[in-house]
């Protein structure tokens, strides 16, 4: 079957307001002076995955709700600038937004505005089916109402991936995503036993591959019932912000996976792209090109 879309990205479109703070956690004070400025830019998890995939040469289409507001205009402009196809469903509640507090070491605390959606929001089924029929693969964000789209995507026969982010392994909200996807990404930050969690995801769902990223501690890769701990890739420059590192990892991993690369090589792609993302200031929207990714990957594979 011929496909016009390599990856359909669902959800995760929005804007972040970036505030650099002197430390995290931030001690209570009546006020802080922010010399570096407070800036708002387009780019949440779905935007960053779509951007990363597009930069790597994958034909990418992004579907989500957007408001008729300045924040939505920023998201639309980001997609136009990078040539990423976007289908924006009108959202009267406005575009998703968040505030990211970023510490000097690049760690962040994100505050998400959950008022920009309604419980009965649904992607139009006709639009979803048309896009799914044209796609090889769908990457599903955990933002509402993506869970309700999972049965339609499964029926369409596309392979699925998702990023559970900082799931603790227990919150039931994440389980439909974890159990429906063929490739599952998550952060190990909230996991007491990452190996146990990745095995449970594979046992209870349909995942062929599960990756729990652990920042400077590397990642845990489950494939073929075997869990391997993989070392981290050193960043090519000083770490300034970890925001978007997981999205970059997912995009680069999927680039390899959709091109039939072995899972361990896909994980190296992800590690290299994630390390690069940590060196990009949070006020910029940037991603590695395919040529740069392959060049850096080759440097780690050379004996």
The best one-word shape is globular
Record the strand order, biggest sheet: 5-4-1-8-9-10-11-12-13
Poorly predicted residue ranges: none
β-strand number: 13
Overall description:
- With 303 residues, the protein is α/β, with parallel strands linked by helices.
- It has 9 helices and 13 strands.
- It is globular.
Give keywords.
four-stranded mixed β-sheet, 303 residues, alpha/beta, 13 strands, 34% helix
Question: What is the strand and helix layout of this fold?
Answer:
Blueprint: E1 5-10, E2 14-20, E3 38-42, H1 45-55, E4 60-66, H2 70-82, E5 85-90, E6 96-102, E7 108-112, H3 125-133, E8 135-140, H4 146-156, E9 159-163, H5 175-180, E10 183-187, H6 194-204, E11 209-213, E12 219-223, E13 226-230, H7 245-258, H8 263-277, H9 290-301
Parallel strand pairs: 1-4, 1-8, 2-6, 4-5, 8-9, 9-10, 10-11
Antiparallel strand pairs: 2-3, 6-7, 11-12, 12-13
């Amino acid at each position: 079957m011929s496909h016009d879309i390599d990856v359909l990205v669902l959800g995760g479109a929005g804007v972040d307001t970036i505030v650099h703070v002197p430390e995290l956690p931030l001690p209570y004070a009546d006020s802080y002076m922010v010399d570096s400025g407070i800036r708002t830019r387009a780019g949440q998890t779905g935007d960053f995955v779509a951007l990363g995939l597009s930069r790597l040469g994958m034909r990418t289409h992004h579907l989500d709700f957007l408001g008729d507001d300045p924040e939505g205009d920023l998201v639309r402009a980001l997609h136009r600038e990078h040539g990423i196809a976007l289908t924006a469903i009108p959202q009267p509640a406005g575009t998703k937004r968040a505030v990211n507090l970023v510490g000097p070491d690049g760690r962040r605390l994100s505050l998400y505005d959950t008022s920009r959606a309604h419980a009965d929001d649904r992607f139009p089924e006709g639009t979803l089916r048309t896009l799914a029929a044209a796609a090889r693969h769908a990457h599903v964000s955990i933002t509402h109402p993506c869970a309700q789209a999972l049965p339609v995507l499964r029926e369409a026969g596309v392979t699925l991936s998702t990023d559970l982010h900082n799931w603790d392994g227990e919150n039931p909200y994440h389980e439909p995503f974890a159990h429906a996807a063929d490739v599952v990404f998550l952060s190990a930050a909230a996991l007491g036993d990452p190996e146990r969690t990745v095995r449970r995801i594979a046992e209870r769902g349909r995942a062929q591959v599960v990756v729990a990223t652990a920042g400077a501690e590397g990642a845990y890769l489950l494939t073929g019932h075997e869990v391997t701990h993989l070392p981290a890739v050193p960043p090519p420059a000083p770490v300034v912000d970890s925001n978007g590192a997981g999205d970059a990892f997912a995009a680069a991993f999927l680039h390899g996976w959709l091109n039939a690369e072995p899972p361990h090589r896909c994980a190296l792609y992800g590690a290299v792209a994630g390390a690069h993302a940590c060196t990009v200031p949070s006020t910029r929207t940037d991603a590695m090109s395919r040529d740069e990714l392959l060049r850096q990957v080759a440097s780690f594979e050379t004996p």
